[in-house]
Amino acid sequence: VARACKDYGVRVQKSVFECQVGQADWARLRDRLLSEYKSDEDSLRFYFLDEAAAERTEHYGVAKPVNLTEPLIL
Amino acid sequence: VARACKDYGVRVQKSVFECQVGQADWARLRDRLLSEYKSDEDSLRFYFLDEAAAERTEHYGVAKPVNLTEPLIL
């Protein structure tokens, strides 16, 4: 699950990923997650943020881990 | 941090809480979190979901833990 999310976005907390994807990529990512996650162990929760909501996002404390070897998607 | 969030909302994953709050409660919750969290250890990330975004939220897998002894806020 983490691998799939990281292929499409940025890990901002241990279990939180942010992905900026178009409809086609979102369908691909969603399919991949639903086929790979363990429904009796894992919990997947998808939130849809529009641009205004994304801009309102606030962050405090330990810096979000950004992998600078990959393209930064915000 | 978890205690503060649970006072205002529902724990939907280990480190994810959803709170439906008005402006005054949001200010109170935010102040409390910022005064209680450890800025060198914890990471706080606030997302603002409007009603449409909240309705689009999707959940799969292990049921979100809902504490039925407290009022349910969705």
Overview of this protein structure:
- With 74 residues, chain A is α+β, with helices and mostly antiparallel strands.
- Chain A contains 3 helices and 4 strands; from the N terminus they run H-E-E-H-E-H-E.
- Chain A has helices at residues 2-8, 23-36, 51-56; strands at residues 9-13, 16-19, 43-46, 58-61.
- Chain A has a two-stranded antiparallel ribbon.
- The longest helix of chain A is centred in the middle third of the chain and has 14 residues, at 23-36.
- Chain A is globular, with a radius of gyration of 13 Å.
- The mean pLDDT of chain A is 86.
- The interface between A and B is medium-sized, with 29 and 29 residues.
- Strand 4 (58-61) of chain A pairs antiparallel with strand 3 (43-46) of chain B.
Q: What fraction of the residues of chain A are assigned to beta strands by DSSP?
A: 15-25%
On the 0 to 100 scale, the average pLDDT of chain A is 86
Number of contiguous helices of chain A: 3
| Gap from first CA to last CA of chain A | 20 Å
Instruction: Please state the overall shape of chain A, judged from the principal axes of the Cα atoms.
Output: globular
Biggest sheet descriptor of chain A: 2 strands, antiparallel
What would you report as the Rg of chain A, rounded to the nearest angstrom? 13 Å
How would you describe the oligomerization state of the chains in this entry?
homodimer
Largest interface: A-B, 29 and 29 residues
User: Low-confidence parts of chain A lasting 5 or more residues at pLDDT below 50?
Assistant: none
What's the helix-strand series of chain A?
A: HEEHEHE
Give, in spatial order, the strands making up the sheet with the most strands of chain A.
Answer: 1-2
Helix- and strand-based class of chain A?
alpha+beta
For the secondary structure, the number of strands of chain A is: 4
Helix content class of chain A: 25-40%
